[in-house]
Design goal:
By secondary structure, chain A is of the alpha/beta class. Chain A has helices spanning 29-37, 60-72, 88-91, 98-102, 114-124, 145-155, 183-189, 212-224, 253-260; strands at residues 13-17, 41-44, 78-81, 106-109, 128-130, 160-163, 172-182, 202-208, 233-240, 268-269, 283-285, 288-293, 298-302. Chain A is built from nine helices and 13 strands. Chain B contains ten helices and 16 strands. The two termini of chain B are 33 Å apart. The chains are: A alpha/beta (303), B alpha/beta (366).
């Protein structure tokens, strides 16, 4: 059973950091306003709207220092990553989790932040939040059930999600801790110290902008490294903006996944609302959930 | 340096100079004195490698070099190709005095694949099991070797070793063979890179294609490459391993993953964003593949341009230099290996000496 960081109360403080790609401050303004309207204080680190002129929100040292400061500061109750992109892998081995381990707090994000989730789960067995980040609050996002799911997750309301059935779903009931995230980052973490032990867990995954053959290759890596054979269940989110080679791969992403897991018998659901589209429900990694997949519907709820 | 002159010097880089005094061995050899580079069973990740078969504890197995009259089998373990497309390679290899057996997968097509998994598996297995076939030339890369590698039975190679030849997606097979059997193979161009008209081929193409013949015939390989201002000088000795960087990353944690300790690693890739290349070099570091190296060879990298607004701000050289900073082994750039015309045959798993000097770079088979 993972350690669950304290849920938030009005008056608590959420720190916003950009540990990976660059984000202009104005892109986080709606998020800041919304978090404040929920009753939280917001503190932003120097990596949000920094003067960086390249891809990153700051140098490795700057991003590390900003994240480290939020991890160590006892007055920060949760850390919301402004955006993903790429960059966690460059600093993860230098992050000092000793204070965080003593006083866990919610780490929120997805995409590149997946590496942080799997690293924290593997090393410290502390729950994290795979959820929308600052940019998702813009353009009316703050009013959606997806941003609302982050709100309710932070206050400790147990998650209870439903989604429509998919013809490829494999029925069954599974109980286990949630783990997962972006497929590219899950594959990238294999064989490193941020690698995920998926045994007995409900694994979820999503991805964006990948070639179909590469999705297939990454799933083969997961299978060949023993990540897929002892799952309790599998939740497949959105695979958006997929690309294909000039000579077509010849299978949809759903068909690719179905083929890779055909020798196992755990429940599987497709098109669960997580991913890089607006539909991105907050999921607590490390927390026990029950997945029920039947002909009529799919339910994922905290035990 | 004048860029134009620089490019023209690169074009003739990698001239392969056969060592004329070398005696080719026409019988397979298990080398028992290959040193004691350790196996790579990571206690943090048990179960990912078969502890019975770490490459480091197996003596190097070098298949018999080929003689005129020997047979080379052509098969498609990954992408599809037509018999028309392989014709130039068949004709040229036959002109070298070798016989060709064309596998059943040539002309087979299952979307991007050279036949279904079952068909590609059966064809490759047939080549492995056929005692007449002394070398297996993969017709092309693409994608698909990982679909069949776990179902191939390589055990016959212990008694009757043979060369497996290819690169790109075939990196899967070369890594797998190295890790599980410590059998030497050849990283080189494949059938789809043979020029349609040999008489009109560019010198660099001719050199690279002929280097396959030299490697197969048992000539000691020697490559002289122009220096690069970003090179790090030094001398290294060790078995040559590597291949396509993305493919190496996606083998991490599997039993096809290579142990690079004490070895000379070469990497190349094509069509990747700089951020992705950076992430892959971090992957090499975080999976322990950079710290124990004896030498590093950076081949061709065809970089996918950054999307507007997402400029990465680092070059390939910056990326590599950042990652190798903690170590002191020699490193060379722009080595003629990769998805490019200048892609010389390399004997995978065989000990080499890499000498990186201000004036020149040399890779010599030991």
């Amino acid at each position: 059973m993972s350690t669950i960081p304290p849920y938030l109360h009005p008056g608590d403080t959420i720190g916003i950091v950009c540990p990976a790609g660059y984000m202009p401050r104005e892109k986080a303004q709606t998020c800041i306003d919304t978090l404040q309207s929920w009753g939280y204080h917001v503190r932003t680190g120097p990596t949000l709207g920094s003067d960086s002129e390249n891809y990153f929100s700051g140098t490795d040292d700057e991003r590390l220092a900003d994240l480290q400061q939020l991890l160590d500061d006892p007055s920060i109750n949760a850390i919301l990553c402004g955006r993903g992109g790429y960059g966690i892998g460059r600093i993860i081995d230098r992050i000092d989790f000793s204070m965080f381990k003593k006083a866990p707090k919610w780490i929120i994000g997805f995409s590149d932040i997946t590496l942080l989730h799997t690293h924290v789960l593997t090393h410290y067995d502390i729950a994290t939040l795979h959820a929308p980040m600052a940019g998702a609050f813009n353009d009316g996002g703050a009013a959606t059930i997806y941003i609302q799911s982050l709100k309710t997750a932070l206050t400790g309301t147990p998650a209870k999600y439903e989604c429509a059935p998919h013809p490829f779903n494999r029925p069954g009931t599974a109980t286990g801790a949630l783990a997962g995230g972006n497929l590219s980052l899950l594959a990238h973490g294999v064989g490193t110290s941020s690698d995920l032990d998926t045994k007995g867990k409900i694994l979820f995954m999503e991805d964006i902008g990948e070639y179909l053959y590469n999705i297939d290759r990454m799933l083969y890596q997961l299978r060949r490294s023993g990540k897929l054979d002892r799952l309790a269940g599998l939740v497949i989110g959105a695979f958006s903006d997929l690309k294909d080679t000039q000579r077509p791969f010849g299978a949809s992403v759903e068909e690719i996944i179905r083929e890779v897991i055909k020798e196992y018998d755990y429940p599987v659901c497709f098109h669960f609302p997580i991913g890089h589209d607006k539909e991105n429900l907050a999921l607590k990694t490390g927390v026990e959930h029950r997945l029920v997949v039947d002909a009529g519907q799919v339910r994922l709820e905290e035990c | 340096m004048n860029r134009k002159n620089f490019l023209s010097s690169i074009l003739t880089a990698g001239a392969v100079i056969p060592h004329l005094g070398a005696s080719a061995s026409n019988t397979p050899t298990r080398h028992t004195s290959t040193g004691s580079y350790p196996g790579h069973i990571d206690p943090a990740h048990p179960g990912h490698h078969d502890p019975a078969l770490p490459s480091g504890q197996l003596p190097l197995l070098v298949p018999a070099y080929l003689r005129p009259g020997d047979t080379i089998g052509i098969t498609c373990p990954a992408g599809f190709i037509t018999s028309k497309e392989i014709k130039p390679s068949v004709e040229l290899i036959e002109s070298w005095g070798f016989k060709i057996k064309v596998g059943d997968t040539v002309d087979k097509k299952d979307f991007t694949f050279g036949g279904t998994d079952a068909e590609r598996l059966a064809d490759f297995q047939k080549m492995l099991d056929d005692p007449e076939v002394k070398a297996i030339l993969c017709a092309r890369g693409g994608y698909g070797a990982v679909h069949i590698v776990d179902r191939l039975d390589f055990s016959g190679l212990n008694q009757h070793p043979k060369w497996v030849i290819g690169f790109s997606d075939i990196t899967v097979l070369l890594c797998h063979l190295h890790n599980n059997l410590n059998i030497a193979s050849i990283h080189s161009k494949m059938c789809n890179s043979f020029p349609d008209d040999w008489t009109k081929a560019e010198p660099v193409q001719v050199e690279c294609i002929l280097s396959i013949r030299q490697a197969l015939s048992g000539e000691k390989m020697q490559y002289n490459v122009p220096p690069h201002e970003k090179n790090r000088t030094g001398t290294a000795e060790g078995p040559l391993v590597g291949g396509n960087l993305k493919t190496i990353e996606t083998l991490a944690g599997t039993h096809s993953d290579i142990d690079t300790t004490g070895k000379i690693l070469f990497v190349e890739d094509t069509g990747e964003y700089l951020y992705s290349i950076d992430r892959m070099f971090w992957n090499l570091q975080r999976t322990g593949k950079l710290s124990g190296l004896h030498g590093l060879i950076i081949g061709g990298f065809k970089v996918k341009p950054d999307d507007p607004g997402d400029e990465y701000g680092r070059t390939l050289y910056d990326i590599v230099q950042e990652r190798i900073k903690p170590y002191d082994y020699p490193v060379c750039f722009e080595f003629p290996v990769g998805h490019q015309k200048n892609n010389v045959a390399l004997k995978y798993g065989i000990p080499h000496i890499l000498t990186v000097q201000q004036a020149q770079v040399q890779l010599i088979e030991k």
